[in-house]
Design a protein that fits this description.
With 152 residues, the chain is mainly α. The protein is built from six helices and two strands. 3% of the residues are buried.
Amino acid sequence: MIDVEIGRTAGGHRRFPIAFRIEFVKQWHQAHERGAKVRLLRQYNLHRATAMRWIDADRQGEFTVATVAAAERAPTRVASRDRATIARQNVRIAELEKKVAQSEAVVEILGKAYELLEEITQSEQTDTEALIPPALMSADEYTRWLRSSKLS
């Protein structure tokens, strides 16, 4: 198994690093059993023409240490424009996560304020009856006042 990660181009096509290609060619040359090379192609979902190009490049000496070092410095690896876009998106994500946390806190505070206002409103409704002097209450109100005050 080759441990080198296969990348993607801007168009979405697979991009094989030089290290992957070198390791694949090594495994290709070590595959001596019947069907081993086909199994290797299927394992990495490669076409035979791609493998043959890599093997020819290896024979011609294109996979030398200097080529590997130059490929590592190649600007096509990850475009700086893409890196800048990713960095901007990460900053934007952090800002939005902060806003979401603030919004959740506001919703929680407003919920508690609503509950408090409900309690105040309910207590005011029961207290208004007590504010009327018993002398001015109707007979029904006076009876309810006596029961709520536990005087009857």
